[in-house]
Amino acid sequence: MVSKHAAPAMEFWYDFGSNYSYLSVMRVEEEADRHGVAIVWKPFLLGPVFKALGWQGSPFLAQQEKLRYVWQDMIRQCEKYRLPWTRPSTFPRNGLLSSRVALLGADMPWIAEFNRQVMRHNFQRDRDINSEEEVGGILADMGLPAESLLTAAQSDHNKQRLKEQTREALDRGLFGAPTFLIGDAMFWGNDRLEDALSYAATDECQSENRRGD
């Protein structure tokens, strides 16, 4: 693992209900290591973002033709990345509790594996990712203190932090997930992950960041 203090950084904004975030969550840590880039984990909620932009839920649901295409595309993309895939019986699935836990652990060593386990629950096992039983089970299986983490995740302070982080996403112009930010440079969509990491690793990007200090 590259030291976060020594490596250039990329903010990774993701939502647990987002199918394309699933693809990125499952592979971002390995790709970031390969590029020598540190990940700044940024869980947020797409629902309030869509509402603020005037959309009634996921844009995929507004057009059935687009949704049918998305399910075809997910089969192809999961085959490409050798990821298991089960079309969720509920879409988009509410990931509020999982997001609160992820925000709590964003700087902890277990965050990457927790994110992957939640995504596996949603897009491989077709399981609820918003129940204390399921999310607590994930934490316990990882050897973490599930009860205390769930309590902290649902504290008023942490709930407010997630609201503020989602507000920050809107203020910085995010309109979907996954989104990758290096400074003010935005890359949207799973298929832009490698472009974002390459940009973050470039000398030009690092020079711009130093000039912005």
Automatic annotation (TrEMBL):
DSBA-like thioredoxin domain sequence ranges: 11-196
Q: Mind listing the GO molecular function terms for this protein?
A: 2-hydroxychromene-2-carboxylate isomerase activity; glutathione peroxidase activity; glutathione transferase activity
Reading the lineage from the top rank, the first entry is: Bacteria
**InterPro entries attached to this UniProt entry:** DSBA-like_thioredoxin_dom, GST_Kappa/NadH, HCCAis_GSTk, NahD-like, Thioredoxin-like_sf
Q: Which UniProt keywords apply?
A: Isomerase
Its UniProt entry gives the catalysed reaction(s) as: 2-hydroxychromene-2-carboxylate = (3E)-4-(2-hydroxyphenyl)-2-oxobut-3-enoate
**Annotated EC:** 5.99.1.4
Keyword Isomerase annotated = yes
Q: Which biological process, per GO, is one annotated for this protein?
A: naphthalene catabolic process
- Which major enzyme category is it? isomerase
CDD domains, A to Z: DsbA_HCCA_Iso
Q: Which Pfam families does UniProt cross-reference here? A: DSBA
List the active site. Answer: S18
Q: Which family does it belong to?
A: Belongs to the GST superfamily. NadH family.
The protein, known as? 2-hydroxychromene-2-carboxylate isomerase
Source organism per entry reads: Alcanivorax dieselolei (strain DSM 16502 / CGMCC 1.3690 / MCCC 1A00001 / B-5) (Alloalcanivorax dieselolei)
